[in-house]
Amino acid sequence: MKTFPMFLQMQGRRVIIAGGGEQAAQKCRLILKTEAAITVLAPVLDPELADLIAEGRIDWHTGPIRPCDFEGAALVFVATGCRATDSCLHMLAKSAGAIVNVVDQPDLCDALTPSIVDRSPVVVAIGTEGTAPVLARQIKTRLEEILEPRLGDLAALVGRLREHANTRLAPRARRDLWRWVFAGPARDVHRQGGERAAAKMIKHAIDTATFGTEDNGSVALVGAGPGAKDLITMRGVQQLQEADVIFYDRLVDPEILDLARRDAERIYVGKAPGCHHWPQDKISGVLVAAARQGKRVVRLKCGDPGVFARGAEEADALSAAGIPYEIVPGVTAASAASAALGGFLTERGTCDTLVLATGQSQTAGKSLGWMKTLQPGTRVAVYMGVGSAGKIAHEISVAGLQDVIDIDIVSRAQQIDQAIARCRASSLVRTVKESAISNPAILFLTWPQSTAQDVQSEKVAQLR
Ligand code: SAH
Protein backbone atom coordinates (compact mmCIF):
# COMPACT_ATOMS: atom_id res chain seq x y z
CA MET A 1 0.00 0.00 0.00
CA LYS A 2 1.44 3.32 -1.06
CA THR A 3 -1.47 5.11 0.59
CA PHE A 4 -3.17 4.28 3.85
CA PRO A 5 -6.94 4.71 4.36
CA MET A 6 -7.99 6.64 7.46
CA PHE A 7 -11.17 8.40 8.56
CA LEU A 8 -10.34 11.96 9.52
CA GLN A 9 -12.18 13.67 12.33
CA MET A 10 -13.90 16.63 10.62
CA GLN A 11 -16.26 18.02 13.25
CA GLY A 12 -15.47 21.70 13.75
CA ARG A 13 -12.23 21.52 11.77
CA ARG A 14 -11.26 23.86 8.95
CA VAL A 15 -10.99 22.83 5.33
CA ILE A 16 -9.54 25.26 2.80
CA ILE A 17 -10.51 25.10 -0.85
CA ALA A 18 -8.40 27.29 -3.11
CA GLY A 19 -10.26 28.03 -6.33
CA GLY A 20 -13.69 29.32 -7.27
CA GLY A 21 -14.67 27.24 -10.32
CA GLU A 22 -16.39 23.94 -11.01
CA GLN A 23 -13.54 21.78 -9.66
CA ALA A 24 -13.55 23.72 -6.40
CA ALA A 25 -17.34 23.45 -6.22
CA GLN A 26 -17.01 19.69 -6.65
CA LYS A 27 -14.65 19.41 -3.67
CA CYS A 28 -16.93 21.71 -1.72
CA ARG A 29 -19.93 19.43 -2.34
CA LEU A 30 -17.86 16.53 -1.05
CA ILE A 31 -16.70 18.26 2.14
CA LEU A 32 -20.16 19.68 2.82
CA LYS A 33 -21.20 16.12 3.65
CA THR A 34 -18.96 16.43 6.73
CA GLU A 35 -19.21 18.82 9.65
CA ALA A 36 -16.06 20.76 8.73
CA ALA A 37 -15.98 24.56 8.40
CA ILE A 38 -15.12 25.36 4.79
CA THR A 39 -13.31 28.47 3.58
CA VAL A 40 -13.00 29.13 -0.14
CA LEU A 41 -10.06 31.23 -1.29
CA ALA A 42 -10.83 32.79 -4.69
CA PRO A 43 -11.20 36.21 -6.31
CA VAL A 44 -14.42 35.18 -8.11
CA LEU A 45 -16.88 32.36 -7.56
CA ASP A 46 -18.97 30.06 -9.68
CA PRO A 47 -22.75 30.47 -9.03
CA GLU A 48 -22.99 27.27 -6.97
CA LEU A 49 -20.29 28.47 -4.56
CA ALA A 50 -21.80 31.97 -4.50
CA ASP A 51 -25.14 30.44 -3.46
CA LEU A 52 -23.47 28.45 -0.66
CA ILE A 53 -21.89 31.65 0.65
CA ALA A 54 -25.22 33.49 0.42
CA GLU A 55 -26.77 30.64 2.45
CA GLY A 56 -24.00 31.00 5.04
CA ARG A 57 -22.83 27.43 4.58
CA ILE A 58 -19.22 28.29 3.69
CA ASP A 59 -16.84 31.25 4.16
CA TRP A 60 -15.17 33.21 1.39
CA HIS A 61 -11.82 34.93 1.39
CA THR A 62 -11.01 37.17 -1.59
CA GLY A 63 -7.75 38.87 -0.64
CA PRO A 64 -4.21 37.80 -1.48
CA ILE A 65 -3.39 34.28 -0.33
CA ARG A 66 -0.69 33.87 2.33
CA PRO A 67 0.71 30.76 4.05
CA CYS A 68 -1.13 31.70 7.28
CA ASP A 69 -4.46 31.20 5.44
CA PHE A 70 -3.72 27.48 5.49
CA GLU A 71 -2.57 27.20 9.08
CA GLY A 72 -4.47 24.76 11.29
CA ALA A 73 -6.50 23.35 8.38
CA ALA A 74 -7.38 19.66 8.51
CA LEU A 75 -7.17 19.52 4.73
CA VAL A 76 -6.40 21.80 1.82
CA PHE A 77 -7.78 21.33 -1.67
CA VAL A 78 -6.17 23.27 -4.49
CA ALA A 79 -8.41 23.51 -7.54
CA THR A 80 -8.07 26.80 -9.39
CA GLY A 81 -8.19 25.21 -12.85
CA CYS A 82 -4.72 26.66 -13.68
CA ARG A 83 -1.82 24.23 -13.18
CA ALA A 84 0.77 26.96 -12.56
CA THR A 85 -1.39 28.69 -9.94
CA ASP A 86 -2.15 25.32 -8.37
CA SER A 87 1.59 24.60 -8.03
CA CYS A 88 2.25 27.96 -6.33
CA LEU A 89 -0.68 27.49 -3.93
CA HIS A 90 0.51 23.95 -3.20
CA MET A 91 3.89 25.37 -2.11
CA LEU A 92 2.23 27.98 0.10
CA ALA A 93 -0.03 25.39 1.75
CA LYS A 94 2.89 22.99 2.29
CA SER A 95 4.95 25.73 3.90
CA ALA A 96 2.09 26.09 6.41
CA GLY A 97 2.36 22.35 7.15
CA ALA A 98 -1.02 21.42 5.63
CA ILE A 99 -2.12 18.11 4.12
CA VAL A 100 -2.77 19.04 0.51
CA ASN A 101 -4.75 17.60 -2.39
CA VAL A 102 -4.17 19.26 -5.75
CA VAL A 103 -6.86 18.34 -8.25
CA ASP A 104 -5.58 16.31 -11.22
CA GLN A 105 -1.94 16.48 -10.03
CA PRO A 106 -1.34 13.23 -8.09
CA ASP A 107 2.36 14.06 -7.69
CA LEU A 108 1.39 17.06 -5.58
CA CYS A 109 -1.09 15.18 -3.39
CA ASP A 110 -0.45 14.15 0.22
CA ALA A 111 -3.96 12.69 0.29
CA LEU A 112 -6.14 11.26 -2.46
CA THR A 113 -9.94 11.45 -2.40
CA PRO A 114 -11.48 7.99 -2.61
CA SER A 115 -14.75 6.92 -4.26
CA ILE A 116 -17.25 7.06 -1.43
CA VAL A 117 -20.35 5.07 -0.60
CA ASP A 118 -22.10 7.24 1.94
CA ARG A 119 -24.51 5.61 4.35
CA SER A 120 -23.31 7.84 7.11
CA PRO A 121 -22.32 6.86 9.80
CA VAL A 122 -21.44 3.83 7.65
CA VAL A 123 -18.96 5.08 5.07
CA VAL A 124 -17.04 3.00 2.55
CA ALA A 125 -14.00 4.54 0.86
CA ILE A 126 -12.56 2.91 -2.26
CA GLY A 127 -9.12 3.81 -3.54
CA THR A 128 -6.96 2.44 -6.33
CA GLU A 129 -3.96 4.78 -5.76
CA GLY A 130 -4.92 6.49 -8.98
CA THR A 131 -4.45 3.35 -11.11
CA ALA A 132 -8.05 2.58 -12.04
CA PRO A 133 -10.69 5.19 -11.20
CA VAL A 134 -13.19 3.37 -13.45
CA LEU A 135 -12.80 0.22 -11.38
CA ALA A 136 -13.32 2.25 -8.21
CA ARG A 137 -16.59 3.55 -9.65
CA GLN A 138 -17.69 0.03 -10.61
CA ILE A 139 -17.00 -1.21 -7.10
CA LYS A 140 -18.88 1.78 -5.74
CA THR A 141 -21.90 0.95 -7.93
CA ARG A 142 -21.93 -2.64 -6.67
CA LEU A 143 -21.76 -1.49 -3.07
CA GLU A 144 -24.48 1.09 -3.65
CA GLU A 145 -26.66 -1.82 -4.79
CA ILE A 146 -25.84 -4.01 -1.82
CA LEU A 147 -26.12 -1.42 0.95
CA GLU A 148 -29.69 -0.20 1.28
CA PRO A 149 -30.17 3.59 1.46
CA ARG A 150 -31.42 3.45 5.07
CA LEU A 151 -28.51 1.36 6.36
CA GLY A 152 -26.84 4.40 7.93
CA ASP A 153 -29.97 5.15 9.93
CA LEU A 154 -30.03 1.56 11.17
CA ALA A 155 -26.37 1.80 12.22
CA ALA A 156 -27.16 5.06 14.03
CA LEU A 157 -30.10 3.37 15.78
CA VAL A 158 -27.84 0.51 16.85
CA GLY A 159 -25.36 3.10 18.11
CA ARG A 160 -28.09 4.63 20.29
CA LEU A 161 -29.10 1.21 21.68
CA ARG A 162 -25.56 -0.02 22.26
CA GLU A 163 -25.36 1.29 25.83
CA HIS A 164 -28.70 -0.33 26.70
CA ALA A 165 -27.47 -3.68 25.31
CA ASN A 166 -24.17 -3.34 27.20
CA THR A 167 -25.98 -3.08 30.51
CA ARG A 168 -28.29 -6.06 29.83
CA LEU A 169 -26.31 -8.63 27.90
CA ALA A 170 -23.01 -10.46 28.18
CA PRO A 171 -20.42 -9.84 25.41
CA ARG A 172 -21.15 -13.13 23.61
CA ALA A 173 -24.92 -12.50 23.63
CA ARG A 174 -24.31 -8.95 22.40
CA ARG A 175 -22.43 -10.26 19.40
CA ASP A 176 -25.34 -12.62 18.60
CA LEU A 177 -27.77 -9.74 19.05
CA TRP A 178 -26.00 -7.45 16.58
CA ARG A 179 -25.58 -10.30 14.10
CA TRP A 180 -29.31 -10.92 14.37
CA VAL A 181 -30.06 -7.21 13.92
CA PHE A 182 -28.05 -6.85 10.69
CA ALA A 183 -29.05 -10.17 9.14
CA GLY A 184 -32.59 -10.66 10.32
CA PRO A 185 -36.12 -9.32 10.26
CA ALA A 186 -35.32 -6.06 12.09
CA ARG A 187 -33.15 -4.95 9.19
CA ASP A 188 -35.92 -5.86 6.70
CA VAL A 189 -38.48 -3.91 8.65
CA HIS A 190 -36.11 -0.97 8.86
CA ARG A 191 -35.25 -1.13 5.16
CA GLN A 192 -38.92 -0.83 4.34
CA GLY A 193 -39.19 2.38 6.34
CA GLY A 194 -40.27 0.98 9.70
CA GLU A 195 -37.66 2.70 11.86
CA ARG A 196 -39.84 2.79 14.96
CA ALA A 197 -40.99 -0.80 14.51
CA ALA A 198 -37.37 -1.94 14.05
CA ALA A 199 -36.30 -0.02 17.18
CA LYS A 200 -39.09 -1.70 19.11
CA MET A 201 -38.05 -5.13 17.85
CA ILE A 202 -34.43 -4.57 18.81
CA LYS A 203 -35.32 -3.21 22.26
CA HIS A 204 -37.60 -6.17 22.83
CA ALA A 205 -34.81 -8.53 21.74
CA ILE A 206 -32.40 -6.86 24.20
CA ASP A 207 -34.88 -6.88 27.07
CA THR A 208 -35.94 -10.49 26.60
CA ALA A 209 -32.61 -11.77 25.25
CA THR A 210 -34.47 -13.44 22.37
CA PHE A 211 -32.80 -13.08 19.05
CA GLY A 212 -32.70 -16.61 17.78
CA THR A 213 -32.04 -17.39 14.18
CA GLU A 214 -35.60 -18.56 13.60
CA ASP A 215 -36.85 -16.67 10.58
CA ASN A 216 -40.38 -16.93 9.40
CA GLY A 217 -40.09 -16.80 5.63
CA SER A 218 -41.26 -13.88 3.57
CA VAL A 219 -41.94 -13.04 -0.04
CA ALA A 220 -40.89 -10.08 -2.16
CA LEU A 221 -42.82 -9.44 -5.37
CA VAL A 222 -40.04 -7.83 -7.36
CA GLY A 223 -40.25 -5.94 -10.64
CA ALA A 224 -37.33 -6.92 -12.88
CA GLY A 225 -37.89 -4.07 -15.34
CA PRO A 226 -38.12 -4.48 -19.11
CA GLY A 227 -35.20 -6.88 -19.48
CA ALA A 228 -32.02 -4.79 -19.40
CA LYS A 229 -29.91 -5.84 -16.44
CA ASP A 230 -29.31 -2.25 -15.37
CA LEU A 231 -32.99 -1.32 -15.32
CA ILE A 232 -33.88 -3.29 -12.21
CA THR A 233 -34.00 -1.18 -9.04
CA MET A 234 -31.33 -1.35 -6.34
CA ARG A 235 -33.98 -2.62 -3.93
CA GLY A 236 -34.78 -5.37 -6.41
CA VAL A 237 -31.11 -6.40 -6.60
CA GLN A 238 -30.92 -6.38 -2.83
CA GLN A 239 -33.89 -8.74 -2.62
CA LEU A 240 -32.32 -11.03 -5.22
CA GLN A 241 -29.12 -11.18 -3.23
CA GLU A 242 -30.93 -12.14 -0.07
CA ALA A 243 -33.31 -14.68 -1.63
CA ASP A 244 -33.12 -18.40 -0.91
CA VAL A 245 -35.42 -19.13 -3.82
CA ILE A 246 -36.50 -17.15 -6.89
CA PHE A 247 -39.62 -17.89 -8.90
CA TYR A 248 -39.30 -16.12 -12.23
CA ASP A 249 -41.30 -15.45 -15.37
CA ARG A 250 -40.79 -16.14 -19.04
CA LEU A 251 -39.90 -12.53 -19.83
CA VAL A 252 -37.20 -12.15 -17.22
CA ASP A 253 -33.81 -11.86 -18.86
CA PRO A 254 -31.35 -14.56 -17.63
CA GLU A 255 -28.75 -11.84 -17.00
CA ILE A 256 -30.96 -10.46 -14.24
CA LEU A 257 -30.89 -13.83 -12.51
CA ASP A 258 -27.09 -13.55 -12.45
CA LEU A 259 -27.56 -10.76 -9.90
CA ALA A 260 -28.88 -13.29 -7.39
CA ARG A 261 -26.80 -15.23 -4.89
CA ARG A 262 -25.06 -18.09 -6.67
CA ASP A 263 -26.60 -20.75 -4.44
CA ALA A 264 -30.15 -19.38 -4.59
CA GLU A 265 -32.64 -21.80 -6.11
CA ARG A 266 -34.13 -20.52 -9.41
CA ILE A 267 -37.49 -21.88 -10.45
CA TYR A 268 -39.15 -21.03 -13.74
CA VAL A 269 -42.90 -20.52 -13.45
CA GLY A 270 -43.44 -18.73 -16.79
CA LYS A 271 -46.60 -18.75 -18.79
CA ALA A 272 -46.47 -18.66 -22.58
CA PRO A 273 -49.48 -16.87 -24.14
CA GLY A 274 -52.36 -19.31 -24.47
CA CYS A 275 -50.38 -22.10 -22.80
CA HIS A 276 -50.82 -22.03 -19.04
CA HIS A 277 -48.11 -24.43 -18.01
CA TRP A 278 -48.07 -22.98 -14.51
CA PRO A 279 -51.62 -21.99 -13.55
CA GLN A 280 -51.85 -18.93 -11.31
CA ASP A 281 -53.12 -20.78 -8.24
CA LYS A 282 -50.22 -23.23 -8.52
CA ILE A 283 -47.76 -20.30 -8.56
CA SER A 284 -49.45 -18.76 -5.52
CA GLY A 285 -49.31 -22.17 -3.85
CA VAL A 286 -45.56 -22.64 -4.32
CA LEU A 287 -44.87 -19.13 -3.02
CA VAL A 288 -46.81 -19.87 0.15
CA ALA A 289 -45.19 -23.29 0.55
CA ALA A 290 -41.63 -21.95 0.17
CA ALA A 291 -42.25 -19.12 2.64
CA ARG A 292 -43.74 -21.59 5.13
CA GLN A 293 -40.45 -23.48 5.03
CA GLY A 294 -38.88 -20.30 6.40
CA LYS A 295 -37.34 -19.31 3.09
CA ARG A 296 -36.82 -15.82 1.77
CA VAL A 297 -38.69 -15.92 -1.48
CA VAL A 298 -38.47 -13.59 -4.45
CA ARG A 299 -41.23 -13.65 -7.01
CA LEU A 300 -39.53 -11.94 -9.95
CA LYS A 301 -41.82 -10.47 -12.56
CA CYS A 302 -40.98 -8.55 -15.69
CA GLY A 303 -41.62 -4.82 -15.66
CA ASP A 304 -43.58 -3.71 -12.61
CA PRO A 305 -45.27 -6.34 -10.43
CA GLY A 306 -48.34 -4.13 -10.26
CA VAL A 307 -48.98 -3.89 -14.01
CA PHE A 308 -50.70 -6.81 -15.75
CA ALA A 309 -48.70 -9.19 -13.63
CA ARG A 310 -51.40 -10.87 -11.52
CA GLY A 311 -49.60 -9.55 -8.46
CA ALA A 312 -52.88 -9.05 -6.63
CA GLU A 313 -53.77 -12.73 -6.78
CA GLU A 314 -50.40 -13.73 -5.35
CA ALA A 315 -50.58 -11.04 -2.66
CA ASP A 316 -54.07 -12.23 -1.67
CA ALA A 317 -52.85 -15.81 -1.33
CA LEU A 318 -49.92 -14.67 0.83
CA SER A 319 -52.14 -12.51 3.03
CA ALA A 320 -54.57 -15.38 3.48
CA ALA A 321 -51.68 -17.61 4.59
CA GLY A 322 -50.40 -14.89 6.97
CA ILE A 323 -47.09 -14.56 5.12
CA PRO A 324 -45.50 -11.11 5.09
CA TYR A 325 -44.77 -9.75 1.65
CA GLU A 326 -43.22 -6.68 0.13
CA ILE A 327 -43.79 -5.16 -3.30
CA VAL A 328 -40.68 -3.82 -5.05
CA PRO A 329 -41.69 -1.68 -8.03
CA GLY A 330 -40.01 -1.97 -11.40
CA VAL A 331 -39.76 -0.05 -14.66
CA THR A 332 -42.91 -1.00 -16.52
CA ALA A 333 -42.79 -1.77 -20.26
CA ALA A 334 -44.65 1.43 -21.15
CA SER A 335 -41.95 3.58 -19.49
CA ALA A 336 -39.20 1.54 -21.12
CA ALA A 337 -40.85 1.73 -24.55
CA SER A 338 -41.54 5.44 -24.30
CA ALA A 339 -37.90 6.12 -23.42
CA ALA A 340 -36.83 3.88 -26.32
CA LEU A 341 -38.85 6.14 -28.63
CA GLY A 342 -36.98 9.13 -27.22
CA GLY A 343 -40.27 10.47 -25.95
CA PHE A 344 -42.31 10.89 -22.78
CA LEU A 345 -45.38 9.08 -21.58
CA THR A 346 -47.22 12.33 -20.94
CA GLU A 347 -46.52 15.64 -22.62
CA ARG A 348 -48.04 18.78 -21.19
CA GLY A 349 -50.67 20.23 -23.51
CA THR A 350 -50.45 17.37 -26.02
CA CYS A 351 -51.06 14.26 -24.05
CA ASP A 352 -52.23 14.74 -20.46
CA THR A 353 -53.92 11.38 -19.91
CA LEU A 354 -52.19 8.01 -19.93
CA VAL A 355 -54.10 4.74 -19.99
CA LEU A 356 -52.49 1.34 -19.42
CA ALA A 357 -54.55 -1.29 -21.22
CA THR A 358 -54.27 -4.89 -22.32
CA GLY A 359 -54.86 -6.24 -25.82
CA GLN A 360 -56.10 -9.52 -24.40
CA SER A 361 -59.72 -9.45 -23.39
CA GLN A 362 -61.06 -12.06 -21.01
CA THR A 363 -63.94 -12.87 -23.35
CA ALA A 364 -63.17 -13.75 -26.95
CA GLY A 365 -65.01 -11.73 -29.58
CA LYS A 366 -65.88 -9.00 -27.07
CA SER A 367 -64.80 -5.47 -28.02
CA LEU A 368 -61.82 -3.89 -26.32
CA GLY A 369 -63.35 -2.06 -23.37
CA TRP A 370 -60.64 0.59 -23.19
CA MET A 371 -61.33 1.91 -26.71
CA LYS A 372 -63.73 4.44 -25.24
CA THR A 373 -60.92 5.95 -23.19
CA LEU A 374 -59.33 7.18 -26.45
CA GLN A 375 -60.04 10.88 -26.27
CA PRO A 376 -58.17 13.97 -27.44
CA GLY A 377 -55.02 14.37 -25.35
CA THR A 378 -54.89 10.69 -24.43
CA ARG A 379 -52.28 8.00 -24.93
CA VAL A 380 -53.17 4.35 -24.46
CA ALA A 381 -50.27 1.98 -23.84
CA VAL A 382 -51.48 -1.43 -24.94
CA TYR A 383 -49.73 -4.39 -23.33
CA MET A 384 -50.00 -7.84 -24.93
CA GLY A 385 -51.45 -6.13 -27.99
CA VAL A 386 -49.54 -7.70 -30.91
CA GLY A 387 -51.93 -10.62 -31.22
CA SER A 388 -54.90 -8.26 -31.23
CA ALA A 389 -53.47 -5.87 -33.84
CA GLY A 390 -56.28 -6.71 -36.30
CA LYS A 391 -58.97 -6.14 -33.70
CA ILE A 392 -57.40 -2.87 -32.53
CA ALA A 393 -57.09 -1.55 -36.13
CA HIS A 394 -60.69 -2.55 -36.84
CA GLU A 395 -62.07 -0.80 -33.76
CA ILE A 396 -60.10 2.37 -34.49
CA SER A 397 -61.53 2.40 -38.03
CA VAL A 398 -65.08 1.72 -36.83
CA ALA A 399 -64.72 4.73 -34.50
CA GLY A 400 -63.66 6.81 -37.53
CA LEU A 401 -60.31 7.61 -35.93
CA GLN A 402 -57.97 5.96 -38.46
CA ASP A 403 -56.43 9.29 -39.52
CA VAL A 404 -56.28 10.76 -36.04
CA ILE A 405 -54.56 8.12 -33.92
CA ASP A 406 -50.77 7.84 -34.08
CA ILE A 407 -49.56 4.31 -33.49
CA ASP A 408 -46.05 3.58 -32.21
CA ILE A 409 -44.90 0.05 -31.56
CA VAL A 410 -41.86 -0.89 -29.53
CA SER A 411 -40.93 -4.51 -29.25
CA ARG A 412 -38.39 -5.84 -26.74
CA ALA A 413 -37.88 -2.30 -25.43
CA GLN A 414 -34.45 -1.69 -23.85
CA GLN A 415 -33.20 -5.08 -25.01
CA ILE A 416 -30.45 -5.75 -27.50
CA ASP A 417 -32.91 -6.60 -30.32
CA GLN A 418 -35.32 -3.75 -29.65
CA ALA A 419 -37.45 -2.80 -32.70
CA ILE A 420 -39.59 0.26 -33.35
CA ALA A 421 -42.32 0.98 -35.91
CA ARG A 422 -44.82 3.78 -36.53
CA CYS A 423 -48.00 3.50 -38.55
CA ARG A 424 -51.71 4.27 -38.84
CA ALA A 425 -54.53 1.86 -38.11
CA SER A 426 -54.90 1.02 -41.84
CA SER A 427 -51.37 -0.39 -41.99
CA LEU A 428 -51.09 -1.77 -38.41
CA VAL A 429 -51.54 -5.44 -39.29
CA ARG A 430 -49.11 -5.21 -42.22
CA THR A 431 -46.56 -3.34 -40.07
CA VAL A 432 -46.69 -5.99 -37.36
CA LYS A 433 -46.30 -8.76 -39.96
CA GLU A 434 -43.59 -7.22 -42.10
CA SER A 435 -41.38 -5.37 -39.61
CA ALA A 436 -39.15 -6.90 -36.97
CA ILE A 437 -41.95 -6.46 -34.43
CA SER A 438 -42.76 -9.46 -32.27
CA ASN A 439 -43.72 -10.19 -28.69
CA PRO A 440 -43.20 -8.73 -26.18
CA ALA A 441 -44.26 -5.37 -27.53
CA ILE A 442 -46.07 -2.24 -26.44
CA LEU A 443 -48.45 -0.43 -28.76
CA PHE A 444 -48.94 3.26 -28.08
CA LEU A 445 -52.14 4.73 -29.45
CA THR A 446 -51.99 8.52 -29.18
CA TRP A 447 -54.70 11.04 -29.94
CA PRO A 448 -52.75 14.28 -29.67
CA GLN A 449 -54.54 17.29 -28.21
CA SER A 450 -53.50 19.55 -31.09
CA THR A 451 -55.10 17.20 -33.66
CA ALA A 452 -58.30 17.29 -31.68
CA GLN A 453 -58.27 21.05 -31.74
CA ASP A 454 -57.50 21.08 -35.48
CA VAL A 455 -60.35 18.66 -36.25
CA GLN A 456 -62.68 20.64 -34.05
CA SER A 457 -61.73 24.00 -35.54
CA GLU A 458 -62.12 22.49 -39.02
CA LYS A 459 -65.62 21.35 -38.08
CA VAL A 460 -66.44 24.78 -36.63
CA ALA A 461 -65.14 26.41 -39.84
CA GLN A 462 -67.32 24.08 -41.93
CA LEU A 463 -70.40 24.94 -39.84
CA ARG A 464 -69.77 28.61 -40.46
N1 SAH B 1 -45.57 -6.42 -15.59
C1 SAH B 1 -45.15 -6.11 -16.92
C2 SAH B 1 -46.20 -6.45 -17.94
C3 SAH B 1 -46.46 -7.92 -18.05
S1 SAH B 1 -47.60 -8.32 -19.30
C4 SAH B 1 -44.73 -4.64 -17.00
O1 SAH B 1 -44.98 -3.87 -16.06
O2 SAH B 1 -44.13 -4.25 -17.99
C5 SAH B 1 -46.50 -8.78 -20.61
C6 SAH B 1 -46.51 -7.69 -21.65
O3 SAH B 1 -45.69 -6.63 -21.22
C7 SAH B 1 -45.94 -8.11 -22.99
O4 SAH B 1 -46.89 -8.80 -23.78
C8 SAH B 1 -45.63 -6.76 -23.58
O5 SAH B 1 -46.80 -6.11 -24.02
C9 SAH B 1 -45.14 -6.01 -22.36
N2 SAH B 1 -43.66 -6.06 -22.25
C10 SAH B 1 -42.93 -6.64 -21.29
N3 SAH B 1 -41.62 -6.41 -21.50
C11 SAH B 1 -41.53 -5.67 -22.61
C12 SAH B 1 -40.46 -5.10 -23.33
N4 SAH B 1 -39.19 -5.23 -22.94
N5 SAH B 1 -40.76 -4.37 -24.43
C13 SAH B 1 -42.01 -4.17 -24.83
N6 SAH B 1 -43.07 -4.69 -24.18
C14 SAH B 1 -42.83 -5.42 -23.09
TrEMBL record:
Pathway: Porphyrin-containing compound metabolism; siroheme biosynthesis; precorrin-2 from uroporphyrinogen III: step 1/1; Porphyrin-containing compound metabolism; siroheme biosynthesis; sirohydrochlorin from precorrin-2: step 1/1. It comes from the Bacteria. Gene3D superfamilies: Cobalt-precorrin-4 Transmethylase, Domain 1, Methyltransferase, Cobalt-precorrin-4 Transmethylase, Domain 2, NAD(P)-binding Rossmann-like Domain, Sirohaem synthase, dimerisation domain, Siroheme synthase, domain 2. GO terms for molecular function: NAD binding; precorrin-2 dehydrogenase activity; sirohydrochlorin ferrochelatase activity; uroporphyrin-III C-methyltransferase activity. The active site is at 249 (proton acceptor), 271 (proton donor). CDD domains: SUMT (cd11642). Belongs to the precorrin methyltransferase family. The keyword NAD applies. Residues 219-426 form the Tetrapyrrole methylase domain. Keywords: Cobalamin biosynthesis, Lyase, Methyltransferase, Multifunctional enzyme, NAD, Oxidoreductase, Porphyrin biosynthesis, S-adenosyl-L-methionine, Transferase. It catalyses: precorrin-2 + NAD(+) = sirohydrochlorin + NADH + 2 H(+). InterPro entries: 4pyrrol_Mease, 4pyrrol_Methylase_sf, 4pyrrole_Mease_sub1, 4pyrrole_Mease_sub2, CobA/CysG_C, NAD(P)-bd_dom_sf, Siro_Cobalamin_biosynth, Sirohaem_synt_dimer_dom_sf. The keyword Magnesium does not apply. This is Uroporphyrin-III C-methyltransferase / precorrin-2 dehydrogenase / sirohydrochlorin ferrochelatase. It comes from Primorskyibacter flagellatus. Signal peptide: none annotated. One of its GO terms (biological process) is cobalamin biosynthetic process. Pfam families: CysG_dimeriser, NAD_binding_7, TP_methylase. Residues 150-206 form the Sirohaem synthase dimerisation domain.
